[in-house]
Amino acid sequence: xxxIIKIENLIFEYKREExxxxxxxxxxxxxxxxxxxxxxxxGKNGSGKSTLAKNLNALLLPSGGxxxxxxxxxxxxxxxxxxxxxxxxxxxxxxxxxVSSIVEDxxxxxxENLGIEPTEIRQRVDMSLNAVNMYEQRKKAPHLLxxxxxxxxxxxxxVAMKPQCIILDEPTAMLDPHGRxxxxxxxxxxxxxxxxILLITHFMDEAAxxxxxxxxxxxxxxxxxTPLEVFRHVExxxxxxxxxxxxxxxxxxxxxxxxxxxxxxxxEEDLIEYVFNRSKEFNSYI
Amino acid sequence: MIRDITLGQYxxxxxxxxxxxxxxxxxxxxxxxxxxxxxxxxxxxxxATIALGTTIIISRVPLKFILKGLxxxxxxxxxxxxxxxxxxxxxxxxxxxxxxxxxxxxxxAVFMGxxxxxxxxxxxxxxxxxxxINLTDGIEKLLRPLRKIGVPAHELAMMMTIALxxxxxxxxxxxxxxxxxxxxxxxxESGNIIKRAKALIPLxxxxxxxxFRIAQDLAMAMEARCYKxxxxxxxxxxxxxxxxxxxxxxxxxxxxxxxxxQRIYF
Lengths: 286, 266
What we know:
heterodimer, A: Rossmann fold, 2 domains, 4-stranded antiparallel β-sheet, 10 strands, B: mainly alpha, two-stranded antiparallel sheet, 11 helices, flat, disordered N terminus
């Protein structure tokens, strides 16, 4: 299996400011991310998911264990820029990650830092803006765009660096439902083009769209598998204070009331289809 | 309302002046300003005014916008004018008690006034026809040779770019904090100057904290996008001097020559 990211017994410690105590934000995690996959990481605030993300492109360096991106150890300083180019990162706040006051200049920022030829940068910028459906807005000022549009520009800025993997740290947390859908659509599109996606989120419905879901709690990964496998553990997930997707929740409650309902329901579509088929069956009995 | 602010005083247009390389415009403006100090009489100013006027007409920036640039320094012009008028000694023209307006005084006052007005209009034409972001790029390129003696050209330009980008963001932030404080009974509008300045403290403290937070976020995002300073960095829009820039420089040389000839021979 070809893994783009290998995390081996990663530990990240920092000194808490209030009491100078050493806290393990990430406590012994080992995960391999397969090339081309779409992985969602969920967890509450303070579960260590953002710290984990920043360890994946050398913004933070491990206190223990190691992280490999494309076979390069993130602790190897000579590889830092290779790693950041191949594992791009999109942050939560769309306002605080755009550098230039013109959209296309901002998208060009990454390739410019890589020292790419001007004509090639131009091509990449146009390609990236088209990929996120923002080509029309290329001359605008970012502060005049909506949150969802700004976040798409941030994604374009990463895409222009031709990464193999994009890490998105709660990219939809500050967006309205419309903006959230726009961003999720782009994420799916990029994934279908072969880019590995690592989505950190606290929206269960977003996580349910991934190939693989990892649930983090207190710096550890407690559940890891396909959405189907993970969301089967409804009680366990609820115990740590997280929700499950709406359809899973509904199926779970129906099951508790004695309604026979299969446990492979993740999305609303699954549930509607099941109920619809059952009612057809039921009608044919009469 | 706060979202509509335009930065600087750029007047959008597509005239040949707008399209000139920012470096050409910066250098030409400097030459123009220096030349103004070589002028010794009103005939020279007439030549300079004609040259500036023609440039304004070509740039198609409405006169209203150009005169607006004079407003903030109107007081300075009046002040210089008055001081020159009363303080220059010479043949008395009018006497108002202890104040005397001399013939020479009036001449110098008008002379200095015209120089100031031409100076301001000349430099505001630069900012009216050049986007702040292009101006920044131009300054970076012009300062680049000075890097050898330790002038941080790239860093200065990057700081200006970021400042331009974040002015609207910080204004929005100010608006937000102001509304939040007003909702809790803060009063920013009444009282004397000292009272009003004091009322700004609960606005400025959160604003500063917020600015530092934004700076931290941005630094992280820039690093994640492989920012490592100005070395080995390329630009998408490489600035190239074109035919029209060469023509502009030639015209500038002609202009300086005419001014010099006028100074010496007429």
